[in-house]
Amino acid sequence: MSSSTVSRQTRQARTTPAPGLKPGPSLRTSRNNVSGWAFAAPFLVFFLVFLVWPILYGFYMSLTGKSLTGANDALIGFANYSEAFADAGMWRSLGNTVYFTVISTVPLVVVALVMAALLNIGLPAQWLWRLSYFAPFLLASTVVSLFFVWMYNPQLGLINDFLSKFGIPKVGWLNDPNVAMWSIVIATLWWTVGFNFLLYLAAMQNIPVQHYEAASLDGAGAWRQFFSITLPQLTPTTVMIVLLQILASLKVFDQIYQMTSGGPGGSTRPVVQYIFETGFTGYRLGYSAAISYIFFGLIVVVSALQFVITRRRSA
Amino acid sequence: MANTTLTRSIPRSDSGQAIRQPRKKLSAGKIAAVVVAAVLAVLWLVPFAWATVTAFKSEADASASKVSWFPPSGFTFDAFVNVFQAGNIPLWTWNSLYTSAAITLITLVISAFIAYALSRIEFKGKKVLMIAIIASIIVPPPVLMIPLFYQMLAFKMIDTPWAIILPQVIHPAMVFVLKRFFDQIPHELEEAAVMDGASRLRIFMQIILPLSRPILAAVAIFVFIGAWNNFLWPFISTNDDSLLTLPVGLQTIKSAYGVQYAQNMASALLAALPLIVVFLFFQRQIIKGISTTGLAGT
């Protein structure tokens, strides 16, 4: 992708039967510069206006006391940042986000792998299984939240009713601060595991069938084949899925905001909600921009780790 | 001639029958696998089933303290009738449909053009441009919400459909999904056209794009599902009731109807229906689309 202009032209000169018909190298280069940027231009306009500019402007905002009520646009240096680092509310919400990420990533990867492995054995009616595991991914977060708030209802909910048949006392799925985050993880698992499942299934179906044939001849059973062929072959996929899942989980907001509003007692409030509330409910845009950047820093660190790990793997 | 390269570049994941392992006789292990798969499938279908049963109950039965799959006073369409009389769902569906369609269309056009430039044209500054776009993949949308909201206020776009649409059309990862596909198309095809004096634009429109239909469909599916279900940005950028998208509208239902469980579930099901129906018809393409684009990051 990064072949230099010169080497590319020599290659083309070699393959072109009648070079005399083509414009000279310098004319060609400048023409390429024009058409290259012309093709890039429409994307670039959106990229600059709706991505690059807000990033820069957001950083500028984080250095001001800007608020939605209009007061105090003056630069105040890094005061917002030092306030944020001493803000227990920010640390707590950041902790909730990390906690959610840790406890959601493992089931979201493992259950996806199990689902894909089961299908890959060759169950009949493939479309039916795929539909049931993947369908929830097609739902909006609000639909998922409505479903689960209703099932989690302590008095009338399906889940407590089911558990009561085994003599288990009512659980406050979304009202008990010790349980609420786990309830959200369960709902999230149901909602998005189908995505990882599809990625695993596609990767499994790309494993060359000869590997399995050789193993069968050696007398390896299905269980053995899974651990000595399928799983090792899937390692690059697993690394990618885990990293993408971590990045996705760190951005959690929708389902928590909708199911618990961050409660009870702030026990599930993620950092994105803290940014949202500081900016739009508390009207402190400058301060919430600063917290956005601290959150961004966390994402950059995780992405850098991802980059290092994937580089080392491919090197 | 080009077909071998092209098919190789597409993960062969959609073929439902393509179970790559040799068929084995029905073993105890396989029966166990069916049982586990079935238990998981039932668990995954229960929320849909329970929502459906609830939606067809009367409000009295839905909020009865005794949970029942077969309500004492029978099933009824009341909840759906009430939801339709309240009248918001069709409007929200329409809002979601046209904003998501616009987002998908704009994304496809601008991403395909720049991906072609990155794949085929050697121009000054290309490397820097590529690094900038790759780097931008890591920017999480929530980080942008505060400055973007302020910016949209300045553009006087808040409470217009443009506020929902425009910031959602930048998908740097999809640019690279497209670029990788274009990279696999053999150069010979274009060189013949160049000899005939065809312009870049004509080559792109008449040779590259038609060959890229599968990947364009994959990207379109990925972007459309994301836009259709996006909550945070449409929630921030619209207050006007007539502009709410389905996911945001449903959020207002919860507070407005309170304890109307049957109506809540009827609304949720109506909101879920369009994409589920589309999925039933285009299952193969959607699964292929997700498997092709999914690992690229969002």
* Alpha carbon gap, first and last residue of chain A: 18 Å
Query: How large a portion of the residues of chain B is in β-strands, by DSSP E?
Result: under 5%
Count the DSSP helices of chain B: 16
Number of strands of chain A: 0
The secondary structure category of chain B is mainly alpha
Q: Radius of gyration of chain A in whole Å, from Cα?
A: 26 Å
Beta strand count of chain B: 0
Q: What is the beta-strand fraction of chain A?
A: under 5%
Relative helix content of chain A: over 70%
**Average predicted local confidence, pLDDT of chain B:** 83
The shape of chain A is flat
Spans where pLDDT lies below 50 across 5 or more residues of chain A: 1-21
Subunit organisation of the chains: heterodimer
Largest interface here, residues on each chain?
A: A-B, 117 and 113 residues
Radius of gyration of chain B: 24 Å
- Category from helices, strands and their pairing of chain A: mainly alpha
Question: What profile does the largest beta sheet of chain A have?
Answer: none
Please trace the helix and strand order of chain A, writing H or E for each element: HHHHHHHHHHHHHH
Helix fraction of chain B by DSSP (H/I, runs of at least 4): over 70%
General description of the model:
The complex is a heterodimer of chains A (315) and B (298). With 315 residues, chain A is an all-alpha fold. Chain A contains 14 helices and no strands. Chain A has helices at residues 5-15, 25-62, 79-85, 88-120, 126-134, 141-152, 158-164, 180-205, 209-217, 222-233, 235-250, 254-259, 271-281, 285-314. In chain A, α3 packs across α14 (285-314) and α6 packs across α8 (180-205). The longest helix of chain A is centred in the N-terminal third of the chain and has 38 residues, at 25-62. Residues 1-21 of chain A have low confidence and may be disordered. With 298 residues, chain B is mainly alpha-helical. Chain B contains 16 helices and no strands. In chain B, α2 (28-55) crosses α15 (261-281), α5 crosses α9 and α12 (213-229) packs across α16 (283-293). At the A-B interface, α1, α2, α4, α5 and α6 of A face α2, α5, α6, α7 and α9 of B.
